Amino acid sequence: MSNAHPPQPNTSPGTDEIDIGKLFGILLDNRWLIIITTVIFAIIGISYAMLATPIYKADALIQIEAKSTGMPALGGDMAEMFGGAESSATTETEIIKSRMVLGETVDKLNLTIVATPNYLPVVGKGIARILGESHHIVISRFLLPADALQSGYQLTITNSEKGEYTLTDSEGREVLTGNVGVLATHNDYALYVTDLVGANGDSFSVGKVSRLDAIQALQTNLAVSERGKQTGILQLSMTGENRNKIKDILNDISQNYFLQNVARNAAEAEGSLVFLKKHLPEIKTQLTAAEDKLNTYRQQNESVDLSLEAKSALETMVGLEAQLNELTFKESDISQRFTKEHPAYISLMDKRKTLLNEKVRLNKRIENLPKTQRQVLRLTRDVEVNQQIYVQLLNKVQELNIVKASTVGNVRIVDGAQAYSQAVKPKKALIVVLATLLGGMLSVAVAFLFAALRKGIENPDQIEQIGLPVYASIPMSDWQLNLDKKRKSHQPLMVNQTLLAVSNPADLSIEALRSLRTSLHFAMMEAKNNVLMISGPSPEIGKSFVSANMAAVIAKTGQRVLVIDADMRKGRMERQFCVDSKCGLSDYLSGQKSVTDIIKQPDIDNLDFISRGDTPPNPSELLMHPRFSELMTWASANYDMVVIDTPPILAVTDAAIVGAHAGTTLMVGRFEQSVVKEVEISKQRFEQNGIEVKGFILNAVVRKASGYYGNYGYYQYSYVSDKK
């Protein structure tokens, strides 16, 4: 109780040991904080999970095949010309997310137009969804003047049955009115509302964003990934509030990507086809001219025939020309794909050079033939070469027409876009669990933080470590708290309704004061007089409560007790004794009243009381007056004990003045409010004035689990009669 305290753990202030029992006790002490905070966070998590807008997901699958021609049967050079390496998944991903592909989707689905219903902030959309209220709008056309703002417009339903609406700008001015399904125009404004669902008075925010912003928004929301490693299967996915909208967007993106791929492959054949058709008329003209020259020369020379040697040279010459023409076609195609430093291009030029050298050698061989044979050979060669070139060009044109018509691209849409029936966000169960855990962890952290920051006195041993014995630990009284509430209601009360020692003498606090009474009996045996001063380091620590109730406890033993309220600044002890504060100590010290005039008798046997009196301008000077010494001498001679309640020593010097006349001095501190350092300073302040502080009283002690499990808790038990 008062003088017996449990043994302390043998740990130094700087120890690194963790007291698990005390930590567990802190959690028990703050259990309601932890429970309430956790429940609040759980409710917030449930509310968010219920009110948050569901986010759905849609996905599609696209296969990237090895690039090939539309007609594999063509084979050979045509396959080499229009074939190529397989495009990587990374490359195709960037193409899918390019402005070329996504821009087509933005234009087709009018994604530059932004129209959303207006709800109450934060919770409005969720409440509307829970209540089943439907708000929906589809705008397929919205044109604005060049100098008009792009956003801030409000569309309000004026007649939901007829589909009538009004469009206003950001300043509330009417822009136009219209009906659903009808193009509304006014002053360069044009609006076509395809669908409108809502009640009269419902409003929607309408605006436009730039095409680039709409594309960037799609790029951010569109996710493209390869299914597996080097499979060539790309998965396109997108999330959004409207399942049908995200499905339509994904389908359109897939289709646009497929069409651009087909168009790109067809464009390769188209380029070569244009080149061939451009040169075909020239070759035909050259062929006709060569035939005319040969016929004319033969007529002039009466149809000269070629010898076997000339025919052999002619065949060789025609073959060389055919190969040179083939290389010309290949050079035209390779130059579009590679630079002149590429190995394929260099190999082609080397082959061309070899054929040209062979052609020069053959020309020298022809020079040895007769003049007529040489001329016929040259003319015949020109005809056959041009004829072969012309036929070859015709064949190439037909092949390219077939390739262009049969191009299917190397992209295949495996799975069209489908939206999941269940929302992917929010994950309600996970949110509730995480919110609950967050609330629990946060409340536990706050509890430990407050415990770490709390520097107040929590056990008597903290005081005894500074050399000041603890005479009593007075527990917090719930009964006293109720008495304080009654007193604050300003109702007329009796002393048995305001003083705990009278109203509830079996209270644990009074039992502690009885123990203090016993300790004081032995402590004051060697004192110079029977005057007891009770002070403290700071206000609001319960000095007056201890003084009044201890005096009442002593008075019940038959001793005559005088209680003096020496706090002439803010003393309020008269409230506990239910007497008037007028005609008190200040009046006596100022010479206005005599001792007998200021003594009041509360309704307690053997107890008298002197109130503080009127508040003087100079309390300290009055206490230093000889009248106060005379009062102490008179009181000590006429009473068995004199209890003086003084102001806090750290606030004013009154306690030091009164202490010079007191035989015994006790200090009072409040549990978890008073700090050990200020108690130590108060003790030093008294000692500097030659006053010995006999002991310390720890008031308003609250039994806590952290103290119990930390092995220094205050233990107090109620042991009262079972008879009423």
TrEMBL record:
<keyword id="KW-0829">Tyrosine-protein kinase</keyword>
<keyword id="KW-0808">Transferase</keyword>
<feature type="domain" description="Polysaccharide chain length determinant N-terminal">
    <location>
        <begin position="16"/>
        <end position="109"/>
    </location>
</feature>
<feature type="transmembrane region" description="Helical">
    <location>
        <begin position="32"/>
        <end position="51"/>
    </location>
</feature>
<dbReference type="GO" id="GO:0004715">
    <property type="term" value="F:non-membrane spanning protein tyrosine kinase activity"/>
</dbReference>
<keyword id="KW-0812">Transmembrane</keyword>
<dbReference type="InterPro" id="IPR032807">
    <property type="entry name" value="GNVR"/>
</dbReference>
<keyword id="KW-0547">Nucleotide-binding</keyword>
<dbReference type="InterPro" id="IPR025669">
    <property type="entry name" value="AAA_dom"/>
</dbReference>
<feature type="domain" description="Tyrosine-protein kinase G-rich">
    <location>
        <begin position="371"/>
        <end position="449"/>
    </location>
</feature>
<feature type="transmembrane region" description="Helical">
    <location>
        <begin position="429"/>
        <end position="453"/>
    </location>
</feature>
<dbReference type="GO" id="GO:0042802">
    <property type="term" value="F:identical protein binding"/>
</dbReference>
<keyword id="KW-1003">Cell membrane</keyword>
<dbReference type="GO" id="GO:0005886">
    <property type="term" value="C:plasma membrane"/>
</dbReference>
<protein>
    <submittedName>
        <fullName>Polysaccharide biosynthesis tyrosine autokinase</fullName>
        <ecNumber>2.7.10.2</ecNumber>
    </submittedName>
</protein>
<keyword id="KW-0067">ATP-binding</keyword>
<dbReference type="Pfam" id="PF02706">
    <property type="entry name" value="Wzz"/>
</dbReference>
<feature type="domain" description="AAA">
    <location>
        <begin position="541"/>
        <end position="654"/>
    </location>
</feature>
<dbReference type="InterPro" id="IPR027417">
    <property type="entry name" value="P-loop_NTPase"/>
</dbReference>
<dbReference type="GO" id="GO:0005524">
    <property type="term" value="F:ATP binding"/>
</dbReference>
<dbReference type="InterPro" id="IPR050445">
    <property type="entry name" value="Bact_polysacc_biosynth/exp"/>
</dbReference>
<dbReference type="Pfam" id="PF13614">
    <property type="entry name" value="AAA_31"/>
</dbReference>
<dbReference type="InterPro" id="IPR005702">
    <property type="entry name" value="Wzc-like_C"/>
</dbReference>
<keyword id="KW-1133">Transmembrane helix</keyword>
<dbReference type="Pfam" id="PF23607">
    <property type="entry name" value="WZC_N"/>
</dbReference>
<keyword id="KW-0472">Membrane</keyword>
<dbReference type="InterPro" id="IPR003856">
    <property type="entry name" value="LPS_length_determ_N"/>
</dbReference>
<comment type="similarity">
    <text>Belongs to the etk/wzc family.</text>
</comment>
<dbReference type="Pfam" id="PF13807">
    <property type="entry name" value="GNVR"/>
</dbReference>
<keyword id="KW-0997">Cell inner membrane</keyword>
<keyword id="KW-0418">Kinase</keyword>
